[in-house]
Every structure is written in C-alpha cells, then in structure tokens.
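Students often ask why we bother encoding 3D structure as a string. The short answer is that it lets us treat folding as translation between two languages. Here is a chain of 107 residues written in the first language.
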Amino acid sequence: RPPSTNGQPRPPSRSGLGLSIGPVHPSLLSNASGARGAVVITAIDPDGQAARAGLERGDVILEIDGRATPSVDAFQRQVSALRAGHVTRFRVIRDRRPLFIAFEYGG
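And here it is in the second language, the structure alphabet:
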C-alpha cells in the first residue's frame, strides 16, 4: 500500500460504489490490456451498487467511461465526478478476460 504523508500505510480506498480498491502493479497487467496501470477490487459490499452491477472482488478496473484508472487517486477522481442517473461503463479484467460492465450510477 502507498504510504500516507505520516509514513503509515493508507487503508484501501472505499468508494460510494460499495467497494474498496487498491493499486495493481503494471507488471501484473497483460500486454493485451494496453493499460499502464489499474486498480483492483479488494473488497465489495454484497448489497452495494458495484456488486448489484456484477463487479466482483479481484476484478481489475482499467477504465471508467473510457478514461483510464491507472491509480487509486485517478479512480477516486472519476467516481467523484459521476452523477446520479448516469449510465457508467467499467472496463475490467476478470480471470484474464476483458469485460465491460455498465450500470446506472446511483450516487
């Protein structure tokens, strides 16, 4: 985990989607993905938006609405910019297979 400013590790990021994420080292990404970085779902609320949409623990999130998510900070910025009612499209890798998961963001 990346260190915080006080030298202590930061906990995994939690989003309004009902999931926690962490960074994925670029060396673990498939060359076929074309990504230089990504985030991975480390925990998911079974009653949250992300689980209802079909996202799962271990999914590697490459993009949100066509915009790369190369870091936890980038992911958080993109999620915070989403508006309720917007149909959001996630590009993920699950079991080494690319997937697109779309759902209406509830805010």
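Translate back mentally: Strands lie at 13-14, 19-24, 38-44, 60-64, 67-68, 87-94, 97-104. Keep this in mind for the problem set.
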